[in-house]
Amino acid sequence: MEFLGTTQLASYCSRKKSCLFPDLAPASTTTKDTYQPYCLPGYCYLSSWRPGLLQKVVLDPARSDKKFNPHGRPPTVLPALRSSLHARYSPRDWHHANMVQLKGSEASRCCAGRLNADSMRLMQNKDQLTYQMQEDSRRNLGERISNIDFWRSELIYELECLLKETQALETAKQRLERAAEEMQGPLKTALECLYHREMRKGIDLVHDNVEKNLIKEVDAFKDCQEILTKLAQKINQQLGINRDAQHALEQDLSDKNSACFIDEKCFNLKNTSNSINFYHGVEKADGTVSIPATWAKFSEDNIRCSQHARANSAKLREDAEVRLESTSEETWNHFISTNLAFNNRIAEVADAKNKLQAQLAKILQEIFQTEDTIMLLERSIKAKEYPLKVAQTRLEGRTKRPNIELCCDAPQLQLVTEVYTIDDTLQTLKRCLREAHDTLQMLILNKSNLEHEISVKANSFFIDKKCMDMRKVFPSTPRLIGYT
User: Fold this and answer.
1) 20-24, 145-149, 183-187 — most confident range
2) Which of 444, 443, 447, 467 is nearest to 455 (CA)?
3) 56-70, 146-160, 460-474: which has the highest mean pLDDT?
4) Residue 291, CB half-sphere, CA atoms under 13 Å: how many?
5) Residue 393 pLDDT exceeds 60
6) CB-based contact 239:173 (threshold 8 Å)
7) I need a labelling partner for 359 at 20 to 30 A (CA). Which of 196, 327, 419, 474 fits?
8) Is the pLDDT score of 114 beyond 60?
9) What value does the mean pLDDT take over residues 251-280?
């Protein structure tokens, strides 16, 4: 058996044979069995000076159960053995045995002294080593706690920054969704304006600037909604990445909190603590899954992933802000240009309508005058019939003159001339009357066309005014960029 902390060359560690006493039967392990006395050189065996008879007596198998007693008296010699009295110990043997016993005892005492000194030195060294190892472990635990506190502070800071960035990104997403929703109203209004303008009639169903601007406005609103919706979807994906990074940071922070609590508990353990106990074999079970380098790299990777997510989130927020500003400005420009086209078109329609109404008034006046002319022509024609009747009656009556009296005299010539003149006059008046009737019909047709055109213009004017009334309400710039 060897003591820990000693060398195998120590004098008290090697098992030696007894130099004074015979080996005893093994009974129980004692200190004598483990640490044998040291025998001086030259005195290894007592049998070298023991007389032969005594040796026979001691080593006799029949008497081997009796132990040798170096300090006792020799056994009584029976009278039958008086011839062997010369085998008794001599004084020289007695002195020599005492000297050997003293030297053996001194050797044993010296060996015990060295053992005690070595044991005290060993205990001191081991006590110092144990204390130093315990202090080193305590110092290592303190450094480990400091490292955990450092990474905890880094994780807490990064987690707070990530939460702020995630909240800002969530706000940007909500602004994009609200902006896209706000554009739904103007888009619906523009589509309704296009639908109502399809109710225009006749020549007013024209592809004018208003319709062109309305189509551009609808396309612009749809494009802006699509852009904002896609950007909101990207932000939603980034929010998922941020939540994964947040979960990793929170899990890492939770693990470090638990590890810090455990290490602080271990750091505060002392030799006088009540919670200490033996756990045999715990030092042989290696349940570790990382080394300090990989342990620090794990948290560093989590922080780097979070920083990368924050950088992407910041870029997306900047893109969202730029998109909101650009879409708001674009929609306002389209809205203003469309309203300007509406106003110009309404003014044009109103001007055309006013001109048509003025022309209609003139046509009505002309119709009234034409009707008066026709009435006068009819009266004049009717008035010319009686003189023609008189002249023709006179000529017919003069045809009844007898014989030579049928003379082509001046009255005859005058009556013939009068009849031709009156008949020509009647033909001229009738032709003028027909022309007057044709003119009246043309004026009536123009009047009908003007009235139709005026109704068409009135319908177009009403539709455009209705569209303008619908377009009086338009989202403000703050609402178009996502603010409520």
Assistant:
1) 145-149
2) 447
3) 146-160
4) 1
5) yes
6) yes
7) 196
8) yes
9) 90
Q: Which one has a higher pLDDT value, 70 or 371?
A: 371
How far apart (Å, rounded) are the C-alpha atoms in residues 291 and 471?
69
Q: Tell me 14's DSSP state.
A: S
Q: What is the Cα–Cα distance from 5 to 8, expressed in whole angstroms?
A: 10
Name the percent of the chain lying above pLDDT 90.
51
- Cβ(467)–Cβ(197) below 8 Å: yes
Give dist(CA 370, CA 356) in Å, integer.
20
Cα diameter, the chain:
250
For residue 217, pLDDT beyond 70: yes
Average pLDDT of the chain to the nearest whole number: 81
Give the number of other CB atoms < 10 A from CB of residue 166.
20
pLDDT exceeds 50 at position 27: no
* pLDDT at residue 229 is higher than 50: yes
Helices 91-182 and 184-197: angle between axes, nearest 10 degrees = 30
Helix (H, G, I), strand (E, B) or coil at 23: coil
Contact 299, 252 (CB under 8 A): yes
Rg (CA), the chain: 69
pLDDT at residue 403 tops 70: yes
Which residue type occupies 107?
A
Prediction pTM value: 0.64
Are 334 and 187 a contacting pair, CB within 8 Å?
no
Looking at residue 154, its pLDDT comes to 94
The rounded distance, in Å, linking the Cα atoms of 428 and 348 is 46
> Counting beta carbons within 10 angstroms of the beta carbon of residue 186, is it exposed (0 to 12), middle (13 to 18) or buried (19 or more)?
buried
- Would you say 265 and 145 are in contact if contact means Cβ atoms under 8 Å apart? no
The residues near 378 (Cβ < 8 Å, ≥ 6 apart) are: 433
Give the DSSP H/E element, type plus range, for residue 218: helix 209-267
Q: At what angle do helices 184-197 and 410-470 cross, to 10 degrees?
A: 170
What are the residues whose beta carbons fall under 8 Å from the beta carbon of 464, sequence distance 6 or more? 197, 210, 342, 345, 346, 349
Q: 74: which DSSP letter?
A: P
Both tokens assigned to 443: 């004026």
| Cβ density class 193-217: b for 16+ within 10 Å, e for less | bbeebeebeeebeeebbbbebbeeb
Q: In the block, which residue shows the tokens 């003069």? A: 398
CA distance 376 to 280: 142
Stretch (H or E) spanning 454: helix 410-470
How many angstroms separate the CA atoms of 258 and 430, rounded?
Answer: 122
Question: Rounded to an integer, what distance in angstroms lies between the CA atom of residue 27 and that of residue 391?
Answer: 193
Residue 204 is given by DSSP the state: G
| Mean pLDDT to the nearest integer, 352-357 | 92
Mean predicted confidence (pLDDT) in 444-472: 91
